[in-house]
Every structure is written in C-alpha cells, then in structure tokens.
Amino acid sequence: MEIDWPISLLDLEPFYSEIESLLEISGTYGFQPYPASQRGLLISNAMRELGITPKSVPLAIRPPKTTNGCIECSSCNHLVCPTNAKANILAKSVLDDSAFPGSISVLYGCFVNSIELRSDCHAEALECYVPLSSQRIRIPVKAVIVCANAIQSAALMLRSKSRHAPTGIGNDSDLVGRGLSFKISGYSVGYVKNPAALPAHWGPHATVYTDDFYEHPGVPCRFGG
User: Fold this and answer.
1) What is the pTM of this model?
2) Which residues contact 149 (CB under 8 A, 6 or more apart)?
3) pLDDT of the chain along its 225 residues, tens only?
4) Is 110 exposed, middle or buried (CB count within 10 Å of its CB: 0-12, 13-18, 19+)?
5) Angle made by CA atoms 141, 171, 9, in degrees to the nearest 5
6) Backbone phi, then psi, for 127, in 5-degree steps?
7) Per-residue 3-state assignment (H helix, E strand, C coil) for 72-109
8) 119 CB-near residues (< 8 Å, 6+ apart)
9) Which residues does residue 209 pair with via DSSP β-bridges, in sequence order?
10) Is 157 helix (H, G, I), strand (E, B) or coil?
11) Under 8 Å CB-to-CB from 131, ≥6 apart: which residues?
12) Please, what is the Cα angle at 149 between 143 and 154, to 5 degrees?
C-alpha cells in the first residue's frame, strides 16, 4: 500500500465497527474478552517480564460460560461450530433478512469462474462450477459483490475476460492484481519444564497477542515493524 493511499483508517472505522458489532467480536463493543488459555497465560506472564504488553486476541467466537458460548471442542479451524459460538456464514448473517425469509441462499462448494458482462459493462451473470457434481451453472445477476480476499478477488476479475473487458474487469490500465503479495510469517516455539502440568486445550489456538512492535519508525509507512 502506497503511503499516499487516498483513504485512512478513520474513513473505514465506521464500517469495521458495524461489522465487528454484528459478529460480536470478543473484547469489543461490550462483548467480554475471550479468556486466555493456560498456555496463553504462560506467554502473557513471560511478555510482562520482558516489558511487552499482552492482549486478548479479538475473536468472532463467544467466550465459554456465556449464552451459546464456546465449548472448546477443537472444531474451530476446519469444522462448523456445533454450538454456533463461532460466527460464520452458516451460523450468523450480517444482513437483517428477517423480513424476507428465504431471501439468502448459500451455495456450498460452488466456485465462480467468471463474471459475465452486458454491453453496458454491468454484471449479467456468474459462470460457476461445482466440483462435487462436475456441474457447470450460470446464475443471472443484477449486481455482484466480490469479497474473495485480495488475491482471489483479483484473480476472478482477471478471469472475467470478454469483448467488453478484453483484459479482465476493471483492468484497462493493467493494474488489477499488480503489487499484491502474500504475507511473511515468522514462527517461534517455546517449551515448558513440566508440560504434563498443563491441562489439554481444545479451543481457539490463539488467545494472546501483542502489538507493541506493530509500528516501527524505520518503516516508511510506520507499519510492519
């Protein structure tokens, strides 16, 4: 992201706040923080000894011992939450469709190959593929909201080539997808003297973090230290 990006965090804050409230993000807007695991508590104590500020990870998961809260069953990463404690597309809609029952349909395992355009360059249909049945379907649309993260959103726009968009949708200047990169991650491992003394933890993997090093004066845009 360039330093002269035309919008600021303050411009986006109202939208972030609304979504985080709808998803009941722990530790925000009156929702209690998700408690640290035993391993998280050890890490928190070690941070404090080093002068680092530990914080509770904001999660879209209702904490244990709350109404419909987490039961720490280990399904957080790859499975559907059995108690709906975790916000996801199947458990919680961010749209109020109560007055329009049946107005939202979720197509599981359906991949969008491309967006078809009309002659006025407005979306006309989605060309989709369902791997489980090897079925190809075409869905007429009036509008399309693309929210498939930075990489896949750009890939979809570039795949959507037609005589109305010969280089992909919105790609007249050949900039769609340019400059995108995957994140760089670093991992560390810690050991305790008596691991058997720690109770088993089957809830969310991350419950503690720090942002003390999020900003750094040596980075041109301040972020990423």
Assistant:
1) 0.70
2) none
3) 456 778 888 999 999 998 898 889 999 888 999 999 988 999 999 999 999 999 999 999 999 988 889 998 888 877 778 888 998 766 666 666 667 777 778 888 899 999 999 999 999 999 999 999 999 999 999 999 999 988 999 999 999 999 999 999 999 999 999 988 777 778 888 888 888 778 777 888 899 999 888 877 776 666 654
4) middle
5) 85
6) -100, 115
7) CCCCCCCCCCCCCCECCCCCCCCCCCCCCCCCCCCCCC
8) 164
9) 55
10) helix
11) 109, 111
12) 70
Q: Report how far residue 102's alpha carbon sits from residue 224's, in angstroms, rounded to the nearest whole number.
A: 44
Specify whether the CB–CB gap between 68 and 83 falls below 8 A: yes
Distance CA 76, CA 61 (A): 9
Query: Hey, what amino acid is at 125?
Result: A
Tokens of 135: 């079925």
107 contacts: CB under 8 Å, gap ≥ 6: 128, 130
